[in-house]
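Posting for a labmate who doesn't have an account.
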Amino acid sequence: MKILIADDDAVARRLLEALLKKWGYDVLVAGDGAEALAVLQRPEPPPLAILDWMMPAVDGVEVCRRVRERTGEPYIYVFLLTAKDGKAAMVHGLEAGADDYLTKPFDQAELQVRLRAATRVLDLQAALIAARERLRDQATHDGLTGLWNRPAILEELERELARDRRQGTATTVVMADLDHFKRINDTYGHLAGDEVLREIASRMRASVRKYDSVGRYGGEEFLIVAPGCDTECARGLTEGIRGQIADAPVTFGGCLLPVTISMGAATLHGGLSGAAALIQTADEALYGAKRNGRNRTEFAVARAEAAQPSLGGSRS
């Protein structure tokens, strides 16, 4: 574990550094409070810090106070070391945000035990953060494909439409549906169907731009939100997706399963229509793709508010 020590006394600093390295810590060194503060304000600061109270420029208490003003994660566990003794000094240091307090000269065994306690606290915090992130991921992602789930992809769409209204840009929504997916389930079983959905989801993620969003809308339907994408952009995007899916069958249990996808793309300029109307436009275009032979994309331009589709007849 990384640990920062800050002390303007070079001899004391070197002794503490040698001791911590002996105990297996990865040690960073600062010669004063200003240098320590710079290290602790990095995007990924060390999780542990031992600060001398009395330092030039910025003392340990002020460093601690400024660290506690920092929002976000991860938490930094701070020790204060000082020659000051007495309850008043301890209270002052703890009120500034220190987690622990040792007077000089400190007992090595006591410091080691307190560092172990600090490590347990930090490990517990890391476990809680990991658990929270897992819950957050489960709440926003589809369990089978790993894509955004329906509420999350709709939230992404609302966010992009709000941006369009502010900036006058275009967003394209693509409704996509696997062709004859029921045949796969009926012929090869639902495990095969699950594998097809996972593989198609992976290919779709690989085919879109890094700032596009892909979600599982329901069953074998997918919704793609492509910000800053006009109709011409949508043609290239959907053709890339269609080709990635149609050009290589999905392998399952030694069988090669040919899969194709039909898509309806609706482009809206300026965010002047709601998400529901835009999705409806894309959905109607998707039905047009199904009627016109599948394994293709139909394109529509969403009208402001009315969102009536204007279908093209081109095959992607």
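Reply:
Got it, the structure tokens are right above this. The two ends are 54 Å apart (CA to CA).
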